[in-house]
Amino acid sequence: MAEGSSYWAGEEAVLLWLLWERLQAADVLEDPLAAYGVGMETLQAEQLITLIRQAKAILHERGKTVQSAVEAPDGPALVVTRDYRIFIGSRRGQEIRMRPMTKAVFLLFLHHPEGIVFQQIDRYRQELTRYYRRLSRSDSIADIDRSLDRVLDAASREVNVAASRISEALSTLLEEELLPSYIITGERGGTKRIRLDRRLVTWL
To answer: How far apart are CA 28 and CA 126, in angstroms?
Structure first.
């Protein structure tokens, strides 16, 4: 192989890399490059390294393509604007309209893919307050705090009501088979979460 000439690429490079791995893993008598009319002993170390790097790069890119195709998220995207408006698909898509507290709870769970136990929601008071104060139509801090207290009180079941209202709002906009991924679900007394793949969520 003349110096400066291009080395094999594409299928040939992938095959070379696989054959080289086999050569390292087992006692192989035949030269893996024989099919190309080139003996391995004729290659300089730098040339062989270049071939292997090319093959590894191709395998890496193919692996990413395959993984992306297998794990591609299913369902429409959600776009959340800075003023907490939520759209389906894109900024020009249908807007998800909810009551201020219902939307605040939805945003809280959307921001925590790991999930939240309803009985421990008071741990997220600061974050929920930030959402609700931005969404509330009330100018009274006292009224806002009372509304937050009701939702953050595990005994009040107000968070359950908010979860039900989220389901109602989304059921009119999403197909039935997609709905479970966009609403708050989970076992009773356990962690509740929105199962939606967060790659589908854009925060502007």
So the answer is: 65
